[in-house]
Amino acid sequence: MPVANIQVSETPLVLYTLRRADDALILGHRLSEWCGHAPMLEEDMALSNIALDLLGQARELYTYAARVEGKDNDEDKFAYLRDVRQYRNLLLVEQPNGDFAQTLVRQFFYSAFADLYWRAMMTSCDTTLAAIAAKSEKESAYHLRHSSEWIIRLGDGTEESHARTQGAIDHLWAFTGEMFAVDDGERGLIDAGIAIDPATLRDRWLKTLSRVVSEATLTLPQNNWMQQGGRVGRHSEHLGHLLSELQSMQRTFPGLTW
Amino acid sequence: MVTVLDRDTELRQRAWNAAASVVDPEIPVLTIADLGVLRDVVLLGDQVEVAITPTYSGCPAMNMIALEIEIALERAGFHRPKVRTVLSPAWTTDWMSEEGRQKLRAYGIAPPQAASSRRALFGAQAVACPQCGSENTELLSEFGSTSCKALWRCKSCREPFDYFKCH
User: Fold this and answer.
1) ipTM (interface predicted TM)
2) Cβ contacts of A51 on chain B, cutoff 8 Å
């Protein structure tokens, strides 16, 4: 018998928190797919470690979303008992790992944003979000250093690694616009000092990217047409497959615990 | 004469000592007090509440540490102790005690540097080898066997070693 999806009362603050939690969970899950498969042992540990940080951030955010919602939901229900259309993550983070270059470019785009975003969120007047931000900021700075170094090594490496990394940048570029988009609910949170306006981060984000990408002898696309939809549950075909693996135990054995 | 205040102070100290005896399951030479993970111990009537702060968001040792604290307090005669997690202010390696740093070094792990160097995107760090003290060392991997460590190698004595990352 199929397990029913939970219902979520998506008030602006619940939705806002869930979106960031979903980003962290889905990207963390993607990175965990490398465990045991990375090109070298050090990278296997690195990607798994980053996945672990993201999973920890997701847990804090889900727990807070559940508290704000004030219903029967909790971190596990949010993760395991929502269907693909109920997920609110960025399209960027659900994109498949592809090759090593694609994984690192995805990570680089996200970490360069997360580093700025969490640092700015430390000033949120919501004390829980500010506290989560203070922890996540330190972790994101480290993740950014890791992916930046790889972008340089891959871009300025062999002809093959250069071509693959440039290909990944061109392919993933259209998914970056969503990070800076804001809807009416979020606008209200920004006005209230709970959230920060991501548009104010875009110049600095681009500066970080430009610096690393040019050192890597790569280029950023000039095409600025951006794909959107993840924030309202319109996902690419990849997320459903990811969730079928992430949720398989709870869907097969409802309520299973360790 | 023993006042209530004295009794509470003594009780709290006893609870603190019990909680402070819990060690990090991954680095058993360090107690949670050395690490700066133990933040507070308060008496709520007959119940003890211990506040801890996570090192890294996803550190799997935290669940075990919370469980060990409950066991340590039960053993010390405090019933149904509570463990609370506090996120703010965020944990930093700057809270690690000097004694903790020395224990780490003796254990073969290079202690963390001051967190002020953390922001440098490609900053040069000089990490001294915990075996021979040489600063002629190199980074092998930014990420190590646990969330809190990186892997380094000493170019003088050729020994690889763990470095407790500054955070």
Assistant:
1) 0.80
2) 58
